[in-house]
Design goal:
Length: about 260
Amino acid sequence: MDFLDNLVKTFFDVDSMLTVAPQLLTVGLVNTLVISAASTVIGLVLGMVVAVMGISTSRWLRIPARIYTDLFRGLPAILTILLIGQGFAKFSQSIFGPSPYPLGIIALSLIASAYIGEIFRAGIQSVDKGQLEACRALGMNYGRAMALVVIPQGVRRVLPALVNQFIAIVKDSSLVYFLGLLVSERELFRVGQDAAVNTGNLSPLVLAGIFYLVVTVPLTHLVNYFDQRFRTGRRRPTAPTSGLKEVTELDAVTPLTTGSNT
């Protein structure tokens, strides 16, 4: 019983959780979502550029895209965040002030764009080449055909993977705390950690983890739903209609066949 009591007091102390809950909700959760959403938007734009460069026939575009992707996918996320957050701190102060918040977003955006670029590239290359050839036959140039036909189809196919990447960004946003955020800029992990240090109890960190789960678990199920839907497509009740059509056509042909025999 003593072990269970200590376990509950260490990880599930209700008073500690209730004390830090307002900060986690109004400061930590808001900043986590802002960092994740901003990094995802920038990452989508840069990722599309990297993907288009990566499938280009020009080596001058394809090779830099490959190097960029290998670099930011190969480095640990925390190393990239520290290099950018600390290496460009003086330059950032003249633009953003003393806050490292924007540098954290930029670092996460560069990491995300490398992964998103590969997702986009795989989606675009999965589109049948006949789509592009048909567009060229209709008089479209390469750029117009890619922008209006090929890329939209490729993006639709990789939506589940993009949502998965957003989930990864939400979790990686906790690494931004290494840059030393201001009190008003702390994300979920930093708020929970500070409260755990002040109280000597891990319950605030557990509550921060619960907040992460509230964001990521529904998104995970959403990914599974979209993935299943894109794989199977909508099931439409076309079989009875086609069957009736075939029967109608058979009835229409039968009298003609009988008449010709007689």
